[in-house]
Amino acid sequence: MKSDFLKSLRLLTTLAALLTALAGHAAETSAEGLTLGPAGSKNVLIVHASNSVQVFRGVLEDFSSLNPGLRLEYTELSTQELYAGTLSRAAQGPASKTGPDIIISSAMDLQTKLVNDGYAQPHLSPETRALPAWANWRDEVFSIGTDPIVMVYNTGKLAPGRAPRTRRELLSLLQAPDQPLASAISTYDVEGSGIGYLAATQDTRLDSMAGALLAEMGRNRVAVHASTEDALDKLERGEITLAYNLLESYTRHRIDQGAPLAIVYPQDYTLMLSRSAIIPRQAPRADLGAKFLDYLLSARGQEMVARQSGMRPVSASANPQAGVRPVGLGVGLLVYLDPLKQRHFLDLWRAAIHPRGGSVQR
């Protein structure tokens, strides 16, 4: 009897210890982020990123499972918040070690500017050296995955046969007598979205009819969205029929969940943008930021990025398909961040989106 009692006591003690350990590793989810790993860990990795927690969660959980003693604190922020936050922390002085250990953003131009202006630190490893030249600039900003920029439409509101396959066809649809896209089209608010500004300025660089297309959107009372998720919500609810310039990965995630949406890869050209990562110069634990970066660039990390987030592995984008225009990291991304060019572009954008002083829909 005493032996049985001792066995039961040991079993209860083991179960209690296991529950305590599990509680220490339990995920803590909030509207802005996710925390994984033991609460008392002395090794805390802080990640700030524009990637949706819902889409990126599987990647974070896999990294956490490989590093069970590490605590990971992930915060989702807009691309503009990521950029402004880095500048604000840098203003506190070079000795201040605060903020995230790694920043991941879909606004690769803003990330490149942070590097150019001295706000990032270099990292060299077998994983970074294996990247193609367009995916690594100065060993300070790195592509961790690519994402095509696409058009998306609600299949219940627009017949597939009428869906535009090129920007010229979209222009024709906007000009159609029956006005199928009047008050039913959306595009990025380039004044509030870093990736929206990047996509729109790349359109201007590549497409001579970009201005005419934007003006026709304005005449159709275009709505503007702050993020791809915002536009997808409107599309799912049927508030709009078509959205121009969305991230493929978020859209594919919605479709997999049953949303009545379809993707169009523009046949004239499809922009391929990168999610890029930097280790800030003021990172408290740059070593942990580098550890996470190397995981993301590893074979396992790239597989998880593709499987869980829907982004495309960097290696799969090295030889793009016909019509795909990869945008490489580098000084060329800084052109439209020049204050004069930026002001000129935004003036033209506002004039097109707000024809004759009209107000934009949000």
From TrEMBL:
It comes from the Bacteria. Pfam families: SBP_bac_11 (PF13531). Keywords: Signal. Residues 1-26 form the signal peptide. GO terms for cellular component: outer membrane-bounded periplasmic space. PANTHER family: PHOSPHOGLYCERATE TRANSPORT REGULATORY PROTEIN PGTC, THIAMINE-BINDING PERIPLASMIC PROTEIN-RELATED. This is ABC transporter substrate-binding protein. It comes from Achromobacter insolitus.
